């Protein structure tokens, strides 16, 4: 007999009764607000085709590196979890994979995955017992059965989750066919894209040659020549904007920027295109391209997102056997003050530009990022990110950033996820942690309750809409209520 | 109708009733103790001339980079706030500037400025409504009217604020005329100076040539020759000591120290004086001068303060248009263990020397500073500084420093401010946060209440007096009570 | 009349009543569990000879650098505390030294030493008044008298402290005679060793030449030839395993690892042995030897412990007068992601290897260590260490590590101490802080109480036994209950 899954309505609120009471009141103001998800990695084909998801392992376990990295760290093989390797998807029985997961679920105690998964299990699927070995089959069967119903198809879940806007991420070398299909389908869900050009900027990425080929096709430009390479970016940015994009997204190893002359930049590009790639030149080119992207933003208005500091695919053995993105990305020490100076010297006071900074190095919150964002008009701070998208991580972000940057140089929450079913859970955690933080401010008389009430709504809804320029829906997008009424 | 300004008597105390009760009791022991302000940047001419302050904008807004940097970060122009540029003070109507400030006051939610300003508004000026757009004019008028009265002249406020000692900061190239005037005025307020020689030590500072010229005048020495350059320092240090100084103050980019031979040091100086300035040589000279200053302290007893780690005037556009110190100083990663070793190897065990270290890089609290101060007899730790002079920042300082360095290797609070009216507010915050920290220690049975009671008085009053050698007033300085009786 | 020493049963528990109640309940489950001490620095001769300890100063003060570093930082001379210098033990009256300590005991307020010492005073010696100048003699006399009794001999205390396993640390060049004596004595206390080869790996350590000589003797190998140097390690590791060792221990300046070819490694070793020592070559050799040790672990199963980041003996004057290990070790910024990559690329996925990482740089908890341990099967995280072995330090460890690495990639508590009497105090603090952390999780509904109950037992007892492979006692070791029955 498994333990009852009591997913408490006061979860994540401080235990002190006065503070908890304020937290409850603040959370009540925002718990039913629509979800703004301006930065994430869901698959647009889900919403284009609206095909049902397959089974519990295929949807929840095998693609989620948060989950399989933890199990891998404890000696569980990725094959046993049905995680795709370079040889393809292992032929592990998905039910067996789910059993392995269930019997190791205790590993997630104290992690945000515990909160997210139990939210999904209880709120999305209606389970009332904690997952464990004894009920693994019941979980697997009931989830798989639910997924076969219309109520669990992607669009139905999108509506049920009360998502107002959902951004995916694509590269300039990728087609936007699924976004076109969504737009033309008449469904009306506001699914947009974001412009992530890393693969055609990073000459050290082994995927770069193929991405350049496809970039030439999608843009119709000679992308091996500097001026038309830039023109290709301009054209694709516009195509992304036509597909709803309001932001670009840049995941570089460091925050380095540069401000080369046109002649220098062209010479650097030519050298790299010819295959003369050194780490220094690749880094300088990435740095220069952040400034080039910023210059394009002056004209087309895309908000820039910069999130540096991950050592990608650190586990060489796993990269060789399983390829990229298998939970082996490790944060590195990151520097912003010198790194951003060339770009900021060029454009830091330009009212047409908006840059959202992220970090995996929490030491920069109070030392670098809050002082920068609390001064430069072009800078804002993205929420605590990736490993730090967690109750303690979010609280540290607020505690270390707010006193210098205030709340209004931050941009609300990003779920940044490809785990579609966890989106409501992640936003719920953010709303609860922000409520808890503000509740403490009120309980300690550092803020008036009226101010906290305004702030919780701003942090949840108004700031992300404003920061990501999502204030207006395009004609083809309609609120879920209208979609529901139309059905 | 604006919201009532309820500035609660329990502000900044933890909400848990037991802890709050201890905090109240501890705070009650120190809330009326005199203010010791051993490190700050108020203008000594205020106390020398005792001329009235001008208006709300001129006193509270335009000179305060904490305030205008936040508004600037949100797109408000400095001209609209009447902040001086290189072209002079903008002719903005001060009332209009105040209105802009009032309508953006919500930006300061969650920041220490919110606490400080509401303290000033309610406790110094008696306002009972929160500042907002609707009452901006009322605020402006009442503040400006109050400032015209004798009760709001600098000396009257000094007495009302119960300041026992206030240190300003001057350079060796600057006159101490205002301090002389204060001393000779018969007023009796204990306003002293501190010796800050950065401008005649940092050959990379563009103000350095003019400072050297004036240093030659104030010292009567050939400051372009190494031996008389050092003699000029010795003479000016003594003049500062005669004007009450008990400390020197060193704001270098890094904490680097050096221990060159006399021959090496002289050669380095000669090279720099001849204009052969490279970043490496300028850095080495700053490093060597910290050791030279320490050697002079052995003889004259000045306490050294070292606070490295700020990238000054990071915003190049703003530096060009508005000059230095416009809220664009950004902290950098800072290293102490290797940097201080030359000086500590030379003098680290000398009982005649006392060095107070500050940081803008909070990661050094537990890793470097507390271990250093918990071992070396010459080292003590200054309070959380600048961006970290805030409730969360102060609490992090105590939490991260105390377990290794204890309380008695710290030196109490520094307000470090040029915002004279905020001095009581800042000291009040420090007293409250220390009370809250000690209250938690007591509530968690990690300290006896008797010990906490001794400590709160030590942290507030005894430690700063001892660390800054302020145990004795000079003959010309008299307590406020005597000054009041004399009037 | 000194204050009563009220060492409260709720110490270190949060004040919030609901949280405290959970903390009490969790702590009750583990407070009487046996102590597993898999990493420490007690002297095995104590347990081999079972000779009585001498007096309060000799046992508690003079050898404890946590204590005398704090007093030294406040100007107390080491001679006054009877701390051994290069000239020998000062002839200070031990009672006088104890009086100096007592009159400065207030310096330890807020530090873990305060908690540990008051635990020892009240729980081990039965004092009921806080130590202060007025009762210094009473403390000295009563402690010294107690130490002369059989109940305070090392083995009796070992039993009374309910220690199940205690590991000491020896070098490969050192004899294991005391461990042999313990094993053969019939006493049955499970005192084991750990393999710490730093002195024969670090060519920059001035003790290295003498250590190599002794290494040749203990191993019977030509340790100046690469292949037999490695063989000497293999032989000594096996001898340590025979003396109960389950782990090796590596205290390097950095976490650097290398993976040289055999030819490169041999050439490097030959060059160093010939005396051609540069910092770069010494560092590379240390780096390579971590990989060599890991390779040997594949065969012999020793768990590797790596704890980098201390600048040893920073105070040059004190090193000259008093020698090493006098409280002047200062942590440095430490990097793991690049540093460990060579070793992890070679062996990071090998199920035969287990590495426990420690740090003195808390910034690496959430940025580097938790992400590494939350992915690599060979990595686990040691507890907060040295300066961070403290209530706040332990809490930061849990708060910053758990969300990414979970609990099961950590290994429970290490006391890491040579202060034998403080071992129960230190483990008690860890149990209380873990109880407090878990209590908050439960009170905030982030974990089920049943899970927290399982976890507190795992963190206290099961994880260290498993991580250090202490699941089985050897034949010669018997539980304290059996030893007691036998007497």
Entry summary:
3 copies of one chain form a homotrimer. Chain A is mainly α and 487 residues long.
What does this structure look like?
The structure is a homotrimer of 487-residue chains. Helices cover 48% and strands 6% of the residues of chain A. A 4-stranded parallel β-sheet of chain A has the order 4-5-8-9, covered by helices on one side. A 3-stranded parallel β-sheet of chain A has the order 1-2-3. The first copy, chain A, is built from 20 helices and 9 strands. The model of chain A has no long low-confidence stretch (mean pLDDT 96). In chain A, helix 13 packs parallel to helix 15 and helix 18 runs antiparallel to helix 19. The longest helix of chain A is centred in the middle third of the chain and has 22 residues, at 279-300. Chain A has 487 residues and is mainly α. The first copy, chain A, starts with 16 loop residues before the first helix and ends with a helix. Chain A folds into 2 domains: 53-149, uronate isomerase, domain 2, chain A (Orthogonal Bundle); 154-486, TIM Barrel (Alpha-Beta Barrel). The interface between B and C is large, with 47 and 50 residues.
Question: Topology of this structure?
Answer:
The structure is a homotrimer of 487-residue chains.
Chain A: H1 17-30, E1 35-37, H2 44-49, H3 56-61, H4 65-73, H5 94-103, H6 112-124, H7 136-147, H8 154-160, E2 163-167, H9 177-184, E3 191-192, H10 208-219, H11 226-242, E4 247-250, H12 262-273, H13 279-300, E5 303-306, E6 310-311, H14 316-322, E7 330-331, H15 341-347, E8 355-357, H16 364-373, E9 379-381, H17 391-405, H18 423-443, H19 449-467, H20 480-486
Parallel strand pairs in A: 1-2, 2-3, 4-5, 5-8, 8-9
Antiparallel strand pairs in A: 6-7
Helix pairs in contact in A: 1-18, 1-19, 6-18, 10-11, 12-13, 13-15, 16-17, 17-18, 18-19
């Amino acid at each position: 007999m498994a333990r009852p899954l009591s997913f408490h309505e006061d979860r994540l609120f401080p235990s002190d009764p006065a503070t908890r009471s304020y937290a409850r009141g603040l959370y009540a103001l925002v718990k039913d607000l629509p979800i703004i998800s301006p930065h994430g990695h869901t698959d647009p084909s889900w919403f284009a085709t609206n095909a049902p998801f397959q089974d519990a392992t295929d949807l929840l376990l095998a693609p989620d590196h948060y989950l399989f990295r933890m199990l891998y760290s404890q000696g569980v093989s990725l094959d046993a979890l049905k995680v795709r390797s370079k040889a393809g998807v292992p032929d592990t029985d998905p039910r067996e994979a789910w059993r392995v997961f269930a019997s190791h679920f205790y590993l997630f105690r104290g992690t945000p995955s515990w909160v997210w998964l139990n939210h999904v299990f209880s709120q999305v699927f209606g389970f009332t017992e904690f997952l464990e070995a004894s009920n693994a089959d019941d979980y697997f069967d009931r989830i798989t059965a639910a997924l076969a119903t219309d109520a669990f198809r992607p669009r139905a879940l999108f509506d049920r989750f009360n998502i107002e806007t959902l951004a995916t991420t694509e590269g300039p070398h990728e087609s936007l066919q699924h976004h076109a299909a969504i737009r033309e389908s008449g469904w009306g869900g506001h699914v947009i894209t974001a412009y992530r050009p890393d693969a055609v900027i990073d000459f050290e990425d082994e995927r770069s040659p193929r991405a350049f080929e496809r970039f030439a096709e999608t843009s119709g430009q000679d992308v091996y020549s500097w001026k038309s390479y830039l023109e290709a970016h301009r054209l694709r940015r516009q195509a992304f904007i036509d597909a709803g994009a309001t932001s670009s997204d840049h995941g570089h190893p460091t925050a380095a920027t540069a401000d080369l002359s046109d002649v220098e930049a062209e010479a650097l590009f030519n050298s790299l295109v010819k295959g003369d790639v050194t780490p220094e030149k690749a880094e300088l080119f990435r740095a220069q391209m952040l400034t080039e992207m910023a210059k394009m933003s002056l004209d087309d208005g895309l908000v820039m997102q910069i999130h540096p500091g991950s050592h990608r695919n650190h586990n060489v053995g796993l990269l060789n056997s399983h390829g990229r993105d298998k939970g082996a990305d490790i944060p590195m020490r990151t520097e912003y003050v010198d790194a951003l100076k060339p770009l900021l010297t060029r454009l830091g006071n330009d009212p047409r530009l908006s840059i959202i900074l992220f970090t995996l190095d929490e030491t920069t919150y109070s030392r670098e990022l809050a002082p920068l964002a609390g001064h430069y008009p072009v800078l804002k701070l993205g929420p605590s990110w990736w490993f730090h998208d967690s109750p303690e991580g979010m609280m540290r972000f607020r505690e270390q950033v707010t006193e210098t940057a205030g709340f209004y140089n931050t941009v609300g929450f990003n779920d940044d996820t490809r785990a579609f079913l966890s989106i409501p859970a992640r936003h719920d955690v953010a709303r609860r942690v922000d409520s808890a933080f503000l509740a403490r401010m009120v309980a300690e008389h550092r803020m008036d309750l009226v101010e906290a009430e305004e702030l919780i709504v701003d942090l949840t809804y108004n700031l992300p809409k404003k920061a990501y320029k999502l204030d207006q829906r395009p004609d083809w997008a309609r609120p879920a209520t209208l979609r529901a009424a139309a059905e």
